[in-house]
């Protein structure tokens, strides 16, 4: 019995959680407290010195949040995880451990528009320089590697068009360059794709999307695969050199195969401060319990809607990797055999004006800037999420002026199709 | 015996059965990993003996240092070696001269010497390499879950609140033998010459 591997759905319900030691409460309680009392001065010193397991202050760790962290680490097949306030916070904390001012990282051009902005503008002021590469041309990643490259960043299923990234091919480029591969797995969730199985060293998520799944709570998470050798060539001083803020501890030497997650917690979260609210952790944990069921329904509905749109005369093209005719279908069958996700784009023969008109005519789909909700969502990226990109960059990232993005919910698919049909013919 | 990854039951059996642990290379410096592990294992009720010839006359968490394994002067169940891989063999050879023989040779995270392991196993001892007993105890008891670490175990039982000197149950359900496949593969690749 002890060697039986519990399935994904069992882990989604149980991993990280057990009845509360104090009350016996079966559901993980919301430990809505800033701080935790110490047993005595020695206990306090042990906790501050990272010598003992335990809680100090919710900015560093919280028992509700810890359950969420372990659950996601288990679902992704990682050694440890750290939850933070948002997906954007996860990206800052990860790169803070890896890059010094003047260093570079390579990022796939097809990303969430908010990430493109964060990498291009916000990170420039930290002296972190991004080099862009094309996920459809693996050679462009190889050509972007320089002696100052410290990481490669991609999305497994890429926003906005739901294209599938060849994770293994890019993992090989990262391995040759001696840098970790970071995969944003937000749109796939570990139910559809587990990037660590394909060579990722670090996985990040916006928990706000499918993992939480109900559009009610922001959150982000960092998963340590435990695969990267941080001591090699002393390229990563945050992990490898004695840390003055902890009296000379070397993180990688002390914490072994979960050193990266610890560095993110004690050097990133502790000092930058983007802590997740325990209440949000609770909401997201509750969402994760039904992740497998929801993802099945999301994918089934998305495929039906994509097929409907592909056959509609007002639609010029549909980008959904789950369609047999899609250019990413082969990669989808390899990386996401259970479904190609529920976020995709299509373009209208009527161009920009038809897109604006469609959005305003829909009655069930909500026009808003999120994805991965139980509700079906619609947005016109060129005028919203990707509006800060120039026209050329919009097209290259899959958010041209005629493109509409859908995030398909878990309603009845017949109702979603009927709503699109009436809006397209209105 | 496969030393690339260990079944949880193997580690669980060791940590559940040993009572006394001699830690070779224990450091009195409170930011060293050996200090962390020594203090934690003492808190969890193990009879800990610090072994380090450079610190004889001093105490570590109230336990007096001895210079060598032969100086312990009583039976010891497990030798936990906090030395780099190239310093393992002499410690194992000294352990083999003890009577009664210790039951377990444990080499710390980052330390691995397959020849020394084979010698110890030939003498009937169990061997663990490249692991930390603090991490493994914390993982199997799920106490390490406070830090967001994947314990790779599940339990529907209510756990006690740990107090000083208290042993914790390590008998949770293991997730796939307790392995994290990608990390184990990486460790194996690292230990093999390329």
Automatic annotation (TrEMBL), chain A:
GO terms for molecular function: cysteine synthase activity; O-acetylhomoserine aminocarboxypropyltransferase activity; pyridoxal phosphate binding. This is O-acetylhomoserine aminocarboxypropyltransferase. The lineage of its organism: Bacteria, Pseudomonadati, Pseudomonadota, Alphaproteobacteria, Hyphomicrobiales. One of its GO terms (biological process) is transsulfuration. InterPro entries: Cys/Met-Metab_PyrdxlP-dep_enz, Cys_met_metab_PP, OAc-hSer/O-AcSer_sulfhydrylase, PyrdxlP-dep_Trfase, PyrdxlP-dep_Trfase_major, PyrdxlP-dep_Trfase_small. GO terms for cellular component: cytoplasm. CDD domains: CGS_like (cd00614). It comes from the Bacteria. Keywords: Pyridoxal phosphate, Transferase. The modification N6-(pyridoxal phosphate)lysine is found at residue 209.
Automatic annotation (TrEMBL), chain B:
InterPro entries: CoA-bd (IPR003781), NAD(P)-bd_dom_sf (IPR036291). Pfam families: CoA_binding_2. SUPFAM superfamilies: NAD(P)-binding Rossmann-fold domains. Residues 14-111 form the CoA-binding domain. Residues 173-194 are annotated as: Disordered. It comes from the Bacteria. Residues 185-194 have a biased composition (Basic and acidic residues). This is CoA-binding protein.
């Amino acid at each position: 019995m002890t060697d039986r591997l519990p399935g994904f759905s069992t882990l989604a319900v149980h991993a990280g959680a057990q009845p509360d030691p104090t009350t016996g409460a079966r559901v993980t309680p919301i430990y809505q407290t800033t701080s935790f009392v110490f047993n005595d001065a020695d206990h306090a010193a042990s906790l501050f010195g990272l010598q003992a397991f335990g809680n100090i202050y919710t900015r560093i760790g919280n028992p509700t949040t810890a359950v969420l962290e372990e659950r996601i680490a288990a679902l992704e097949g990682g050694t440890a995880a750290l939850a933070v306030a948002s997906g954007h916070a996860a990206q800052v904390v990860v790169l803070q451990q890896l890059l010094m001012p003047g260093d570079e990282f390579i990022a796939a051009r097809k990303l969430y528009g908010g990430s493109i902005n964060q990498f291009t503008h916000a990170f420039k002021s930290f002296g972190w320089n991004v080099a862009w590469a094309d996920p459809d041309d693996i050679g462009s990643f190889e050509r972007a590697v320089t002696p100052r490259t410290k990481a490669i960043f991609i999305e497994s299923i890429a926003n906005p068009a739901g294209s599938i990234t060849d994770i293994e091919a890019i993992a090989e480029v990262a391995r040759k360059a001696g840098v970790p591969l970071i995969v944003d797995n937000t749109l796939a969730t570990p139910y559809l794709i587990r990037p660590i199985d394909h060579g990722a060293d670090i996985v990040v998520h916006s928990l706000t999307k499918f993992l939480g799944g109900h559009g009610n709570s922001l959150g982000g998470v960092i998963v340590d695969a435990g695969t990267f050798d941080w001591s090699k060539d002393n390229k990563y001083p945050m992990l490898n050199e004695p840390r003055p803020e902890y009296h000379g501890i070397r993180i990688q030497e002390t914490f072994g195969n979960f050193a990266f997650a610890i560095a993110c917690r004690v050097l990133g979260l502790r000092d930058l401060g983007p802590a997740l609210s325990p209440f949000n952790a609770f909401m997201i944990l509750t969402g994760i319990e039904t992740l497998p069921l929801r993802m099945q329904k999301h994918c089934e509905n998305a495929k039906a809607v994509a097929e409907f749109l592909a056959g509609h005369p007002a639609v010029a093209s549909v980008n959904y990797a789950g369609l047999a005719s899609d250019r990413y279908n082969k990669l989808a069958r390899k990386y996401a055999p259970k479904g190609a996700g529920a976020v995709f784009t299509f373009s209208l023969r009527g161009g920009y004006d038809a897109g604006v008109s469609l959005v305003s005519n829909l009655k069930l789909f909500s026009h808003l800037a999120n994805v991965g909700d139980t509700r079906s969502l619609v947005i016109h990226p060129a005028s919203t999420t990707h509006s800060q990109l120039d026209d050329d960059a919009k097209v290259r990232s899959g958010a041209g002026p005629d493109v509409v993005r859908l995030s398909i919910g878990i309603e009845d698919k017949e109702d979603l199709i009927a709503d699109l049909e009436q809006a397209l013919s209105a | 015996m496969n030393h690339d990854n260990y079944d949880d039951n193997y580690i669980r059996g060791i940590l559940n059965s040993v009572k006394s642990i001699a830690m070779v290379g224990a450091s009195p410096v409170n930011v060293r990993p050996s200090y962390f592990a020594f203090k934690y294992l003492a808190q969890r009720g193990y009879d800990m003996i610090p072994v380090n010839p450079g610190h004889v006359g001093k105490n570590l968490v109230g336990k007096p240092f001895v210079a060598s394994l032969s100086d312990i002067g009583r039976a010891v169940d497990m030798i936990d070696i906090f030395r780099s891989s190239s310093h393992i063999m002499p410690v194992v050879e000294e352990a083999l001269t003890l009577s009664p023989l210790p039951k377990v040779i444990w080499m710390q995270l980052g330390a691995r010497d397959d020849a020394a392991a084979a010698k110890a196993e030939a003498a009937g001892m169990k061997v663990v390499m490249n692991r930390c007993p603090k991490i493994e105890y914390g993982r199997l008891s799920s106490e390490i879950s406070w830090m967001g670490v994947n314990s790779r175990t599940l339990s529907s039982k209510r756990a006690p609140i740990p107090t000083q000197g208290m042993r914790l149950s390590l008998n949770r359900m293991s997730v796939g033998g307790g392995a994290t496949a990608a990390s184990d593969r990486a460790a194996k690749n690292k230990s093999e010459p390329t």
